[in-house]
Amino acid sequence: MIRRSGLQKEVISTYRRALRVIRSKPVDSQTRFRTLIRWHFRRPQVQEEISPRNISLIEHLVRKCQRQIEMWENPGVKDVVLNGQMKSWEEGRRWQPKRPSRDSSK
């Protein structure tokens, strides 16, 4: 099993907490919540800028996300709106079957 630092455990815990929030939301809006959460944790422009050694930035982003999750946990929040960039990012991440190789050397 991989040994994780305290900060890594906190990031994973925050991500799992965000995913658990989805279960309390209406079924028709759960996919939008899932896309929004993935976007917050995996968006490429942020991941390219974050160095694993930049602890203060990572801690800041975790605190920011925790505040966002607290808002989502409110029972009055039933749905979220995704912007076009989030939608296109999620579309690009969807699994697509691989085409068979036309390489005849096998």
UniProtKB/TrEMBL annotation:
GO BP terms, alphabetized: mitochondrial respiratory chain complex II assembly
Record's protein name: Complex 1 LYR protein domain-containing protein
Gene Ontology CC: mitochondrial matrix
Main location: mitochondrion
Assigned protein family: Belongs to the complex I LYR family. SDHAF1 subfamily.
Domain (Complex 1 LYR protein): residue spans on this chain: 9-71
Superkingdom of source: Eukaryota
Pfam family, one: Complex1_LYR
Keywords: Chaperone, Mitochondrion
InterPro entries assigned: Complex1_LYR_dom, Complex1_LYR_SDHAF1_LYRM8
Location of the protein in the cell: Mitochondrion matrix
